[in-house]
Amino acid sequence: MVHGEAWTLKELFVYPNEYIYWSVQIVMYPFMTGLVAGAFVLSSLYHVFGIKQLKDMARFSLVFSFALLLVAPVPLQLHLQQPLRGINVFMTPHFTSAIAAFGIVFSTYAAIVASELWFVYRRYFIETVLSLRGKADKGFFEKIRQGIFSLLTLGSYDVSEKALKADEKAVKILAGVGIPVACFLHGYAGFIFGSVKANALWMTPLMPVIFIMSAIVSGIALCMLTYIAVMEIRKFLVSSRRQALSRPQAREELKGAEIQVISITAKYLLLFLVFAISLELLDLVFRGYTAVKSWDVLRSVIYGRDFFDIFILQYGVGNLVPLMLFLVPGLTIKRAVVGTLLVLFGVFMMRWNVVIGGQSFSLTFAGYMHYHLPIVPHNLETFKEGLGGALTVAAMPFFLFWIMNKIFPVFGYNK
Amino acid sequence: MSNHVLRPLFVVAVLVFLGLLARHFIVPKDFGIGRTGYMYGWHRKSNVEDWKAVKVKYRTAEYCKDCHSDKIDLIMTSPHAIINCENCHGPAVDHPDDPPKLPIDRSRELCLRCHFPLPYPTSGRGKIRGINPELHNPGQACSTCHNPHKPELSIQ
Amino acid sequence: MITRRDFLKYTLKGAAGLAVPVAALEIAAPGKLFAGKYDPSGVRWVFLVDTLKCVGCGLCVKACKLENEIPYDANVTRTWVERYVLTKDGRVSADTPKGARDGFLTEKVELGQGKYRDIKKEEIEKAFFVPKLCNQCQNPPCVQVCPVGATYQTPDGVVLIDRKWCIGCGYCIMACPYGVRFFHPVYHVAEKCNFCYHRITKGMNTACVDACPFGARKIGNMKDPNDPVAKIIASERVGVLKEEYGTKPQVYYIGLSKEVR
């Protein structure tokens, strides 16, 4: 069977070689990179612009951004027909291709985030190593732990006042440099699509900007959501433990998600959401007004076949409803949870409507293709490019975050 | 500034060096910019030879005529003279060594490629004589009555 | 015919090649033998399709699939033939069932998903066939977007794909406005028409040109002023497909119509 045939249904006049070649993994790819960029921008708001209210959020979103970062190339890798040759992008990059430059931009960005993390957690690494060294009879795991942390200190045990000041300065610089690089990284994902002149829906110079705005929106939303979830789970665990031991706990440990943190973050979310919606609508209005050759088929897709996906799911449920939820005064945690979930869904649908929507009409402009997401896989291909593959990719950052939290503790560690 | 500040940079430098080292071993030696420039000519040069070395399967009537000149002489006198041998006999490849016998396509569908009547006025197809396959001796191979090399019935 | 003979001479000049028939060269590793002799700098391959002559028999598609080892029953093809039927009510119906590998064996036009449009003879205003293949663009967008340099343009103007280096990302497939690219079902890398590069560099025609009984397909060298195809392109009224993309396609058409996509 030809790649793509399993999930493509053709209608009317379509060229024989046309299939939905870019399926759900390519929807996941800009969605994940968007979350990376957004989470990083959120953490930088504190480090660079000194927005104090975001302090609790900053360290959290930085670690989460790193977890997401490691997952971002996975969907690309999963959709390659030759996954083992993925390394060729680094070996013989062809820089006239947006994908080739992705390798370089991504690596640079990964280096920046990793370095920033190192500076933030350096003191913790050193303290851990020193306390483990002092311990007399170490178990096997503690020896391994000491090894890992010794490696992480990169051989420097300087925790003098001067050194810590230098750390703070480095974090600030890296966070500042990181913002444009994060935007560039995700603008690049937009460029991958926006520069395909053969695709009438994708080709617009607005695409990178739209992608950046919606990226920040989704990144902030995910950080808010995960922050609330983690804080509430902690509160629940602590209080249940307290009940079991009937022992009073410090107030600090009992703290759930703070509504002040949430509402200030929500303000930034709203700002970027408005930008994103305005740009998307501008694009739509412009296409309709100029009505070039491709408009007939685009109109039939946007207002006909994909109307529900675009106007009900993306703009309605994913944009308008959360906009209302956040705008109504007196934000509560519950409302924020619903709002952020809907925002994430909206951004996902936007990626879906770009990637799948762009392939739902033929290059003939006289035929259509339907994408049927494989739900029950019957071979590796339909798993990778089906619901299973998408959910695997979606779950990975949370799993990674859980592991990384053991090395970079997000909570309970204060300088 | 304290000396530890530059350490992440050293790590990056080591990683970049390892990447370049890997590149040295993985990238084929003949990979480079061809005569069409970096945008259109960035490639592994020996690949051109790979493509040139693909085996030719359709050898044309030139190849057939040494042994089957009788058939070629016959078809040359008929309206089917324009049809190359291999369209019906299949690609010669290294016949008669490999394959020793060519599989001849005698299906009605082969003839219908041209002789299914399509009344298209602005295409050459409308001028070809066609038959209705459901009415014209259905189920029979065309070659039962028509010699493909000399298809007119009166001559056979 | 003159071109072919001229060209054969041209490619084989210098060595013993002149005296040896093509069949004999085959056995002695043609890639190596021709490597030093085929000089691409004096060549710019172009293709000429005369849609007025095409009858939609699809023998070109069959020959192409067998010559270039594209699995015969896979629903992808390097070349295909489209049918356009314009009816008196102004509607255009077009199809290319299985890329016309078996020709067009019904007057019904395929609409996809098992549906057909039955068109009566009296309704037809005009109807014709259009063969398609890779345009070997002067500015190939597929090559521009390849992230690893696995597809490239040769100096004689043909765009090739490196099956050993392609990572299978599909970006080139997305970038081609003509839909000529696909993933090879066996090698799992990008695949497309390359004007039968193994044939044209040996002085032969492409398999589709040889298979066409009606002379609807021709290949030529635009840099050779005596080439009949080059002469036609230079002196007669020819069109190209989707000029607006700026790809400078090098497959020229006689008898194009506004309905052609």
Considering the chains and any ligands shown, give keywords for the structure.
heterotrimer; A: 415 residues; mainly alpha; two-stranded antiparallel sheet; 15 helices; 2% strand; C: 261 residues; alpha+beta; Alpha-Beta Plaits; 2 domains; three-stranded mixed beta sheet; three-stranded antiparallel beta sheet
Number of separate structural domains of chain C: 2
Number of helices of chain A: 15
Beta-strand portion of chain A reads: under 5%
Compute the separation of the termini of chain A in Å: 58 Å
Count of distinct strands of chain C = 12
- How would a crystallographer describe the biggest sheet of chain C? 3 strands, mixed
Give the overall pLDDT of chain A as a whole number. 89
Architecture overview:
The complex is a heterotrimer of chains A (415), B (156) and C (261). Chain A is an all-alpha fold. Chain A has a domain at 24-195 and 390-415. Chain A is 71% helix and 2% strand. Chain A has helices at residues 24-47, 55-71, 73-79, 88-91, 98-134, 140-152, 161-194, 206-245, 251-254, 259-290, 295-305, 307-327, 333-355, 380-384, 387-407, and strands at 8-12, 367-371. In chain A, helix 1 runs antiparallel to helix 7 and helix 1 (24-47) packs parallel to helix 15. The radius of gyration of chain A is 23 Å and the shape is globular. Chain B is mainly α and 156 residues long. Chain B has helices spanning 7-26, 37-41, 46-52, 60-64, 69-75, 85-89, 108-115; strands at residues 31-33, 42-44. The longest helix of chain B has 20 residues, at 7-26. Chain B starts with 6 loop residues before the first helix and ends in a 41-residue tail after the last helix. Chain C has helices spanning 2-12, 22-27, 30-35, 59-67, 141-144, 171-175, 197-200, 207-211, 228-235, and strands at residues 45-50, 80-87, 92-95, 109-112, 115-117, 124-132, 151-153, 159-161, 182-183, 190-191, 217-221, 251-254. In chain C, strands 11-1-12 form a 3-stranded mixed sheet, covered by helices on one side. In chain C, strands 3-2-6 form a 3-stranded antiparallel sheet, with no helix packed on it. Chain C has a two-stranded antiparallel sheet with strand order 4-5. Chain C is 22% helix and 20% strand. With 261 residues, chain C is of the alpha+beta class. Chains B and C meet through helix 2, strand 2, helix 3 and helix 7 of B and helix 2, helix 3, helix 4, strand 6 and strand 7 of C.
